[in-house]
């Protein structure tokens, strides 16, 4: 793929000194490799934990760990790290100043970072508060309506037993309701403050979850179909959009909790639905720029139902699925840099239309799947494991890399076991990877005693309908 625009980004960034602030040091490895490749000054990595996988060594980066208490959940970790950055211990501050005595460094933070600084060093691409507020799941339906985007019915209520009960009964279409908290305590993702309520007992559990952290909750019907997302990218003169991505969201039998396990691009919706999703992203991008002066990447998450795509939330930031899509192209980190430059209002010479065409063409012909999650348990004696698996007649067995369908990585971490499943080009194109993910987790339970438990995939209602029509 031509990297003319990546060369422009490199020229703008390569002489800058970078402080990489990510919760897990292992997550900084890719950034450090890129900056070293560019010939940039040796970066400084500031992290709360080591994380799963290899972290940058002292020969390529200065690494300072805050060594916070291990978080119980993904979102707990995000918030703990954000709080720590606001009140850094003196040894961390001194380490940064020793590395950057002139104070000229910029900060590379996570995609959800807001516009602030670390000891006077500003974030690149930090988001204004007005943009962050768009992520509130209790106000996004008003935005869909203003932008003219079709959506499902919903109801926003105060957090109380009576209001949630009535909203559930009013909105339920037979499969229960999905209830999501507001952003009173900051943004939330990964289904952390979201519950699929089907029984009175699950409603009581949801109320217990919401009461200490939210004022309002959005209640909408549970929609059967593939969870998916579409990314848009807002430039000064136009909005471009990419291909739909499957969000691998797994169900736990008899539980209201959903397991978010990242994304893959093997699944294809019907062509007319694909184009409808891409149009939604472009319409919304123009609306966001006109109304909020928005710039850069955003993501619309939703469900591909039998009646078409129905949006459920807006992520006014770079989406993790876009990194999965662009990873095989070798441009994932450069595209994040490009996004940050757009957010900051930098004038770039590249053609947005050409960028859209090139990414679409590559992403449609080169599929990718990076599925995984942090499992809260860590079996005694478990070591980092790297293995290849092949599926034959519904049975998974270890395989040579050449014939494998997936690569599985297990890495013990502070909060449990980091599970990563990388789908190879042998994976069938067109279908959801969620069923295979569930099968692999069952295999991992049997082999490594991880105690993940039974998981179920979402149903591809369009695939089922096509098979029914074919007889």
TrEMBL record:
ATP-grasp domain ranges (all copies): 141-342
Alphabetically ordered keywords of this record: ATP-binding, Nucleotide-binding
User: Could you tell me one molecular function GO term of this UniProt entry?
Assistant: metal ion binding
Coiled coil, from the record: none
What Gene3D superfamilies does this protein's entry cite?
Answer: ATP-grasp fold, B domain
Record has Secreted as a keyword: no
**Highest rank taxon of the organism:** Bacteria
Protein name, per record: ATP-grasp domain-containing protein
Name the lineage: Bacteria, Deltaproteobacteria, Bradymonadales, Microvenatoraceae, Microvenator
